[in-house]
Specification:
Strand content: under 5%
Distance between the termini: 58 Å
Mean pLDDT: 86
Number of helices: 8
Radius of gyration: 34 Å
Amino acid sequence: MNLDLCTIDWTAIGSIATVIAMIIAYRTIYISVKQNKDNQKFQTLLVQREIEQKRLDELVDNIMIINDSIQPIVVADYSVKLTKGIFTEDDRHFIDEMVANDISNNNRLSVQLIKYDRNESAKKVLMILSNMRQKYGEWVRDLSILNLYKTNYIIFPDELRRIILTMANMSKEIAPKYEKDIHFIINEKNNDLNKAINLMNIFCYTISSYLNEQKKIFEDELCAFVKEEQKRIDSMIFHDLIR
């Protein structure tokens, strides 16, 4: 078979080759662009995941700082010291530090509640902790003031009556079975300071019991929340990339 080179349309072949080269080049560019977009998306997801992880870790750290500062055993120990009159100067300094820490914890909780106001799961955990802190904080303040009144004999009657009313109402709310005992203490012929100190025996027991019960609930809720949040964060990249 004789092939006459003169009969071959080199122009047409060149055009076909050019088209093929353009297709290959376009395909290469398309793949490159797609890979770049995928890489950019992946990097964005990594950053988003890192932000979410940091946010969760920060929340848990703040929560645990507050939870660890709330110790039911401390309520019992220092209340007994007050009622038995064996409060030392070191004890007073320790309680003053607890009052300052409680104010800081309250501020820390307020910020977290604002940040997670629309996250019902996180808000549920924070509200349990907030209720514990509120009752623990009330005990700390009342103990500090009563010790001040007892040792310095400087008493503000209105504040003392407020403490009596608060301890009575909070104790009855937590443990209604002590209502008769509380009523007896309030109505006995005694000065308000002694009434308040006697009420502390009931108040410290109800608060410590309440905290022990709530801490178990809190820990269960916190573990459930963190488990779900961590699962969501860990699956962020996989779910978004396959869509």
